[in-house]
Amino acid sequence: xxxxxAVDLCKTFPGKNGRGPLEVLKKxxxxxxxxxxxxxxxxxxxxxxxxxxTLNRLETIDSGKIYIEDKLLFDCSQGVNAVRLxxxxxxxxxxxxxxxxxxxNLFPHKTALENLMxxxxxxxxxxxxxxxxxxxxxxxxxxxxxKVDAYPAQLSGGQQxxxxxxxxxAMEPKIMxxxxxxxxxxxxxxxxxxxxxxxxxxxxxTMLVVTHEMGFAxxxxxxxxxxxxxxxxxxxxxxxxxxxxxxGRTRQFLQSVL
Length: 258
Prior knowledge:
single chain, five-stranded antiparallel sheet
């Protein structure tokens, strides 16, 4: 089953400070299969994060189609969605998509465990006892069983991001989106987050990851997608993209970051 399918996504932001409109996505098409790990790489400003955010409605699209689990959710033209779904139907499909951001976005006044329990209780309507049990299990899974009662301010950046990953997993999504999850971390903390992500990948989680960690993309990805100026330049297995990319711009980018 295809877990995510994007077809010809287009997105333009209005111009600012006298500048004209900025075309951020130009007919971007991509399919992510069940259990597949896809890494999206490319220079800053190439549309990677915007593309990711369109997939769970954090950004609207001007035109194109988005399927989640082969179900058509958006079929847009000139910003208008032709698919008529109830709010509940759309929300139910989008709940299958978890997301981890660059910044951890944890509630500062709640403990690590409380951050994990909140959404399952209020959105999934899970009982407090089940939410607690699930939260404890997930904190142990990301190596933070000793930080159950710690507040975000008492955690390192790497620990906070691991809590954020566990929080997304607490909703039991079928797909995980990662938007440069290590970009806000000090270099010595990056490894602990990537280790959790590799574990998820090895466990069969479907993952779409925007990253600048080329080692992770080379090691963990089934497919690497290269974006440049709002378009997909090329995609393929990591050994092909990193060893013999077809596009000159891909070669230039990789030479600059490796």
